[in-house]
């Protein structure tokens, strides 16, 4: 990957990531361009010192790693997620309607529902196709508008602008054209098969707008799926800048699925992907249990997921002591209830790395009377006991169909993560870091 971070590269990744399957495919392509070898989980792995590898799970989560060149002493690791709130198509065969072609959907994740109304939509995901040798997965994404979710006109709902309680089963079902149309047939053409050869599918709605700069000086950008593909791409970019100067340190980058619905799937942070890969790597190195524990202690894992910038129209929603400014740098996310993994210990280490790299850091904490959300770090901690820190970037309109963020912040994150992957980290005793700054 280019050693100079480019916002256009981020835009390409955002535009490609129309579903978790497409995000994973886009990340795999970047890794392969940089010499990483695919290791299917079902295959036997032949891992070489200093080798570069990746594996996928469910086609929607991906983990890449660089093998240490000498006896294992520790890890660098960064984690993000591939999924975003959207609408999942329940089945391809359109519901019965005398006027419109319809296919019922259900909400995935905690979205801002009205942001999906009255905009051109496409669909994306995978279809499972019957072949002579079994079932094959094929990505699909018609590059055109195939659906919309029409609003009820103001004349039929005079109180609409006074607030609307949306019922997703009634108010937010899409139309796919006139009666007689077939979503199955459209996706079959995309997949190059006959409609009857599609056995099943994992399909979601996606926005048609491309990522683009915003602002009088182009300082911001708008896109769908900024949460969390911005962190996924910038941490991947930083990972690929790692020089591997520590003989005994391995480097890891992982993008999980299903964070927006609790991470409790096989391909989510609560699954065993991270633990399984590390176990196989350690076994290939002949690592003992004691060596494994020591190496996992000499680690600082970055859990990267975006946070909320202080809203220009509603600053009262944010902690007045910790305003988050777009363009103000990387967020260090804290929560007293441990919904974020940052402690004074891990936060100090990451802040020191950022300071050395010239990257500003902002403390991110909710108002004391506003309960915060969580992310994948504390859930990943159920599987992997490594010191962790939760980081992110400030954005507006999180979980809207279209979100807004800062171009400068994306570059800050990429620069910070690159510095992290090139900083020796060692914990000589509990509560102390030795950082090769």
Task: Walk me through this protein's architecture.
- There is one protein chain.
- Helix content is 24%, strand content 26%.
- It is built from 9 helices and 23 strands.
- It folds into 2 domains: 7-84 and 224-435, Aminopeptidase (3-Layer(aba) Sandwich), CATH 3.40.630; 86-207, Aminopeptidase i, Domain 2, CATH 2.30.250.
- The strands form 6 sheets. The protein has a 9-stranded mixed β-sheet, with helices on both faces. The chain has a 5-stranded mixed β-sheet with strand order 12-13-21-20-16. A 3-stranded antiparallel β-sheet has the order 9-8-11.
- The chain has 437 residues and is an alpha/beta fold.
- The model has no long low-confidence stretch (mean pLDDT 94).
- It has helices at residues 7-16, 20-33, 183-191, 226-240, 273-285, 289-297, 344-357, 376-380, 407-421; strands at 37-38, 52-57, 61-66, 74-81, 86-89, 100-102, 105-108, 121-131, 134-140, 175-178, 198-207, 212-214, 220-223, 249-256, 299-304, 307-308, 330-333, 361-364, 388-392, 394-396, 403-406, 425-426, 434-435.
- The radius of gyration is 22 Å and the shape is globular.
- Helix 4 packs parallel to helix 9 and helix 7 (344-357) packs across helix 9.
- Keywords: Aminopeptidase, Hydrolase, Metal-binding, Metalloprotease, Protease, Zinc.
């Amino acid at each position: 990957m280019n050693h100079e971070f480019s916002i256009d590269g981020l835009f390409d990744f955002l535009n490609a990531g129309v579903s978790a399957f497409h995000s994973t495919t886009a990340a795999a392509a970047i890794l392969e361009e940089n010499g990483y070898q695919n290791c299917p989980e079902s295959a036997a792995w032949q891992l070489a010192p200093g080798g570069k590898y990746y594996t996928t799970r469910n086609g929607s989560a991906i983990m890449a790693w660089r093998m240490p060149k000498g006896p294992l002493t520790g890890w660098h690791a960064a984690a993000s997620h591939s999924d975003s709130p959207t609408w999942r198509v329940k089945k391809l065969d359109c519901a019965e309607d005398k006027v419109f072609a319809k296919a019922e959907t259900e909400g995935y994740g905690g979205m801002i529902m009205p942001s999906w109304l009255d905009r051109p939509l496409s669909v994306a995901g995978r279809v499972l196709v019957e072949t002579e040798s079994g079932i094959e997965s094929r990505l699909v994404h018609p590059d055109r508008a195939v659906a919309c979710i029409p609003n009820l006109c103001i004349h039929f709902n005079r109180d609409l602008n006074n607030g609307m309680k949306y019922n997703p089963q009634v108010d937010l079902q899409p139309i796919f054209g006139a009666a007689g149309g077939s979503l199955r047939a459209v996706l079959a053409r995309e997949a190059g098969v006959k409609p009857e050869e599609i056995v099943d599918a994992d399909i979601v709605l996606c926005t048609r707008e491309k990522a683009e700069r915003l602002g009088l000086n182009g300082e911001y950008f708008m896109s769908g799926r900024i949460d969390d593909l911005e962190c996924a791409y910038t941490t991947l970019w930083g990972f690929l800048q790692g020089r591997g100067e520590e003989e005994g340190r391995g480097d890891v980058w992982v993008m999980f699925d299903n964070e927006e619905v609790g991470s409790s799937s096989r391909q989510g942070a609560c699954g065993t992907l991270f633990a399984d890969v590390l176990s196989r790597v350690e076994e290939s190195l002949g690592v003992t249990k004691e060596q494994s524990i020591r190496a996992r202690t000499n680690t600082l894992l970055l859990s990267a997921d975006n946070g909320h910038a202080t809203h220009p129209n509603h600053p009262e929603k944010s902690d007045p002591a910790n305003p988050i400014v777009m363009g103000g740098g990387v967020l260090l996310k804290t929560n007293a209830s441990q919904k974020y993994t940052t402690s004074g210990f891990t936060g100090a280490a990451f802040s020191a790395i950022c300071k050395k790299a010239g990257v500003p850091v902002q403390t991110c904490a909710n108002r004391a009377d506003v309960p915060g959300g969580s992310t994948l770090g504390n859930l990943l901690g159920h599987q992997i006991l490594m010191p962790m820190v939760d980081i992110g970037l400030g954005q507006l309109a999180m979980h809207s169909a279209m979100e807004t963020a800062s171009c400068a912040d994306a570059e800050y994150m990429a620069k910070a993560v690159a510095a992290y992957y090139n900083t020796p980290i060692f914990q000589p005793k509990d509560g102390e870091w030795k950082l090769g700054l």
